[in-house]
């Protein structure tokens, strides 16, 4: 009899982590590797945030904290929601976890029963379905294809809702596509949700500050106040403030739900790192001017990568509204053979051959629920992106 649980058998390891790990191994072995798999800003955490962490250490703020966040951070989160999203929360409605992933997982563990369904638009972040499965729920995938700019329609959402639906999981701008829902597009979805009061909304707003051109970010409870009492609004400091390793995510919602999430966290990890929490206070309360600077940098990189990929034979790359990903379609490459002799049967074969033959690491589309595509993270230098696009162009030109 295996020692492993049946619950674990329902999930698979993260493909994005697997790609990043293999790229690192090849690089350590002497290969010239350009990694475009990790969703992590390549610039340093701002100095005021680092200084706050050092000050916290020197002040001895290195002990256990309340399970789901120090009062100062919860207050800062409430202030942020009011300032940027026109949402009013009290500290009792806020939960702080070890990254946004834990916050999402806590919510699922606190609410899902066997048979409960969670609607997840695809392409999706790789962890969403597996977190639902691990918590005992059933993912219901609603696929948005390139012809709708990777965004689901109100009709698709309506058709997916059943009496068993517990959550609608919403991510805009999206990982992996960068697609962002406008106010009107989101309003159309919330109108559907208002007709189904048994459906709760979990919104992953992690890329809120990474939006481009004239796109304006909005979140469901902001667009439709009638959903406030059945919405968990999730965010964090990792992407906007370049604090991926600090591991601080947070959410706000109804007190009953937040209390249940606290119970889950109290019996799993307990409190997030005390030092990281004080650093997050500085991030949320401190200067925000560099967000615009970083946004302009990412927009320039987006334009560079979109142009470079659209110059590739067999690839079509839409222009995303936000985040730091593109999700090109490779339909024109399927069925061909690479210069190295690999038959491109699907996007996983494409990504494998691309890494083996050119040293460019991307994540294949099947990991995100939509093929044939791959995801590129352009959170790296212009030089690396330019070279990577040149290698991908050469790889595609060699397909026959």
Characterise the protein shown here.
- Its EC number is 2.6.1.-.
- Its cofactor is pyridoxal 5'-phosphate.
- Pfam families: Aminotran_1_2.
- There is one protein chain.
- The chain is an alpha/beta fold and about 400 residues long.
- The longest helix has 22 residues, at about 290-310.
- β5 (about 165-170), α8 (about 185-195) and β6 (about 200-205) form a beta-alpha-beta unit.
- The N and C termini lie far apart (about 50 Å).
- The strands form three sheets. It has a seven-stranded mixed sheet with strand order 2-8-7-6-5-3-4, sandwiched between helices. A three-stranded antiparallel sheet has the order 9-12-11.
- It folds into two domains: about 5-45 and about 290-395, Aspartate Aminotransferase, domain 1; about 65-285, Type I PLP-dependent aspartate aminotransferase-like (Major domain) (Aspartate Aminotransferase, domain 2), CATH 3.40.640.
- Helices cover about 40% and strands about 10% of the residues.
- It has 14 helices and twelve strands.
In short:
The protein folds into two domains: 6-44 and 290-397, Aspartate Aminotransferase, domain 1; 63-285, Aspartate Aminotransferase, domain 2, CATH 3.40.640. The chain has 14 helices and twelve strands.
